[in-house]
Amino acid sequence: MFQGFRNDGHKKNEIHVAAMGLKLEGYPGSGTFAHGVHPPDHKKLSKDAAIRVMPTPEMVVLALHQNIGGPCDPMVKPRQTVQWGELIGKGSTFVSTTLHASVPGIVQRPVRVTLANGRHMDTLPIKTEGELPSGQDLWDEIFGGDWPTTGLNAYEPTQISRDINDAGLVGLGGAAFPTHVKITPGDKKPIHTLIVNGCECEPYLTSDYRLMVEAPVSIITGALLAGRSVGAERIVIGVEDNKMPAVAALKKATDGTGIQIAVVKTKYPQGSEKHLIQAVIKRQVPLGGLPSDVGVAISNVGTMAAVARAVIHKKPLTHRVISVTGGGIVNPSNVLAPIGVSFGALIDFCGGLTPGAARMVAGGPMMGFAFANPNTPVTKGTGGLTVMTRDEVNAGEETACVRCGKCVDVCPMNLVPTKIAMASRHQDIALSRRYNIMACFECGSCAYTCPAHIPLVQLIRVGKALVAAGGI
Amino acid sequence: MKPIDETRPTAPVIHVSPSPHLAQSTTSTRRMMVDVLVALVPVVAMSLFVFRGYALLQLAVCLSGSLAAELLFVKMRGRQSTLKDCSAIVTGIILAMSLPGTAPWYVGVIAAFVAVGIGKIIFGGLGMNLFNPAMVGRAFVMISFAGALAASGFEDVRSAVDAVSQATPMNAYKMNGVVTPLVHLFWGTTNGSLGETSALACLLGGLYLIIRRAASWEIPAGLLLAVLVIGGMADLAGPADGWTVLHHILGGSLLFGAFFIATDPVTSPLTPKGKFIFGLGTGTLIMVLRLFSGYPEGVMFAVLLMNALTPLINRWTIPTPFGGQ
Q1: What is the model's pTM?
Q2: Binding-site annotation, residues of A
Q3: N or C, which terminus of chain A has less Cβ within 10 Å?
Q4: From the CA atom positions of chain B, what is the Rg in Å?
Q5: Where do the annotations place [4Fe-4S] cluster 2 binding (chain A) (predicted)?
Q6: ipTM score assigned to the predicted complex
Q7: What CATH number belongs to A59-132?
């Protein structure tokens, strides 16, 4: 249960951020991690664009499997009328979650679509019919109003977790791990720290940043509830030091709550949960382990805002903030849009494509998925749509590896990417495992840096599939 | 969404590809090679200044030999020309800088063909070779044309160029116990292989390589550390004949080897730790050869021997992953 902060020990290592007069007291981390890269962040395209509410689209397509873990079982039939927020799918296993109608309307015949990540998925399309608040009303409905930061002891830890599952929450940072699995009272692995991830280290993306600036109090309320559910002794929000307006907004909102803000160094992939834990509490999550193995629960800022809404207002996850940005978008924006809307509708809402647009990416450019069909629907984990021009993509011609070791110098997991990639290319499973292929989380730092422009990440993905097929 | 009309040149054409979708624009293999060429400028300039026409001729012979060999061998493999990656130019210049200016033209040509053809292309081209190509070429001619690269090959007492009329500092010491003043070794006004004489030029070029990260600092650091320690011990244990550890560092091809030859990325280990071990091993072998073998110099053999150990060093230095035991 949440009881404030221990300030004993670890006093020697403080993170000083002189500009803001902030200190991260009581935490041993250095505010960063070893290796990593500094890609150009391109965030200025959309970082000052206040979140705009998208008008209700004519149609949404809700995939039945939007999270890591099991899919949903559909709860509605074609031609059935559903209300906004009505339950339409139920998790098939524990590591799965519920699904709700993001618009009021009539359920259409299920169709199979290809999601941006390449998976073919059964979906429930809903044709909009009926009223959904629009504009400022929808914003107020979702993020507005008073968010309590005191008296949260009235909410029972197990009930918080149940409410999160009932609201269909998944990690909104991109991985879409069911939130109720993380935010739940644990007996076996006690959680001492809840880290709220506001790093948003992917270039271009600004949706989390805008949310921190525009709706900080809902994030704080959600964090307090989540912290109470997992029984954390302390709550820290990790934000990269290129987002100082967000830090200022959060600072104001956290006043008197005991929540601390860890201003960490801007470096890709700082938003990786393992690396944020290292930056803040200097513990390494064991290989193949989870944050709970080091007593940490970690979740994204957007997820926390959704937790607040799920627990206090008992409202499901139906909308999310999406950055629609890149040189290929006429008006780069941050958009509050219903889940299931097509990427094409988002592009139209933001003024369309520029003539130079060359690649559409669901997510950010480092880990996002390129796709070609504009009818592809948005899922719960979609934090952004980055449309890049040919110049921005800057694909170089592949040449031979000269074993310069630059990939080794940047790998945040301390691997030897070129060796693993070559082992994969030659289908040498034993060699790729000797070089710890499964530790790679495909952040893309190696391929970004490689002077020979070798598709290292893609080769490693193929190798991982080979290892998985070979049975570990 | 508006339909995309591909017949109009202004319409966007969308293509897909695996992530990441960003690439660092400033790096390429070619750029790394160009960095090495820039770093070689002081060395080449100094060799032209000291050896005049000898250096010019040797450079021309080795460069044209390397480029011709690259063209010929790549064509024989039925591959596309790889001249534009500039690696053949680097090999040619480093080879020329490692030969005596007085070596006959055919020695340079044969060395270049062996370096590029047998040292690199038959292994599969750039990135696939096990041994430093320039050193393979040099080792071949050193054994085949022993006279041209032995002590007598460097000296021509009747030469109009001052440096060439003297013995090389390493030979003068090994054979006659004559110690060349450090100042001469530093500026490079002595006899020797074209690029090795000036410690200053090697240091300048080497620093550029390291600042541009075209070469890793771990290899020269390990190499110099090993030479300092072993040379220092030899100073304490050996006769006080005036040849100190500083002469070991500034004399011969030690600095040229440390910065330009041992740092060849293809033939050195991948990890920082491995690179440091590689440097230590090379430095140790150089000192063993210099102190105990019949040769006055040992850089070339030391590098080739350590190249052979590189796969093993890579295997020994697999880093522990983040979160691993």
Answers
A1: 0.89
A2: 401, 404, 407, 411, 440, 443, 446, 450
A3: C
A4: 22
A5: 411, 440, 443, 446
A6: 0.87
A7: 2.40.50
